[in-house]
Design goal:
This protein is of the alpha+beta class. It folds into 2 domains: about 120 residues, N-terminal domain of MutM-like DNA repair proteins, CATH 3.20.190; about 120 residues, Helicase, Ruva Protein, domain 3, CATH 1.10.8. It is built from 6 helices and 10 strands. The chain has a 4-stranded antiparallel sheet. It has a 4-stranded antiparallel sheet with strand order 2-3-4-8. Helix 5 crosses helix 6. The protein is globular and about 55 Å long. The relative contact order is 0.15. The protein binds a DNA duplex through helix 5.
Amino acid sequence: MPELPEVETIRQGLAEQLAGSRIRAVQLRRRDLRVPVPRGLASAIAGQTVEAVRRRAKYLLFDIGKHTLISHLGMTGSWTFASSKNYVKHDHLSFQLTDGRELVFNDPRRFGLLTLVDRGEEATSPWIRDLGVEPLSPEFTPDALQRLAKGRTVPVKNFLMDQRVVVGIGNIYASEILHRARIRPSRRVGRISLSGWGEIVESTREILRRAIGQGGTTLRNYRAVDGESGRFKNQLMVYDRANLPCFTCSVEISARAIGGRSTYWCKVCQK
DNA sequence: CCGGACGCCTGTCGGC
DNA sequence: TGCCGACAGGCGTCCG
């Protein structure tokens, strides 16, 4: 579900709402997520203070006492403040804060991740270790992409979604980025010119930055910590617009599966 | 090493 | 109304 703009929006909400809060108690209601939640997770963080909430790729990193809690939202994970003490279906973990509020992790499909590492040691964990460059960092450059793409035949859309190359881009933003860059999603990466990579870098930064500014994209489940929907849905140019007119040229938007995922593009605007 | 298919799990939606 | 298949914002594993 959530890509970088959604995870970053959640991070900002958590950082505002949570920094300095003390966790009175932790309830772990289900351990069988994508990988089992460590047995000792609840006792390790109960009674501790949340000092920061950081993000790496699509992972949220909560610095709590001597530990860092690593959380991935998978397709349907969410962190929200519960308005009442009534649990709803798929509430797997909750923090009762000393000020009376309660923060809940809910994930119907259980593709999410909750695990613990020593404070600040996430970079060497198997989840984080092999991740590629942050797209909003100075290391995300046309040269770096061209070097990684050299000799490869993957479609550019799959390449942009490969978290070992560049992190945070998922199925929605991959289509949006390539539309803005005027490049077809099926183009083989080894044959894209340096100026093509330049377009991709610029488009990626622009799309992600604007999407963060709009609080992300809500298609169905996604909600920010405060329950707000992402407003970038109104600015999607191609995603979920099969057979509707391209906003640039009025030709019908094309759609087909690439890499097993729904992909949208304009066959006139994108080459 | 690379690229592509598949499975994980639950909910929803459209067609019949 | 009910059933059934397809599909959903991610990612790890397996196979050729």
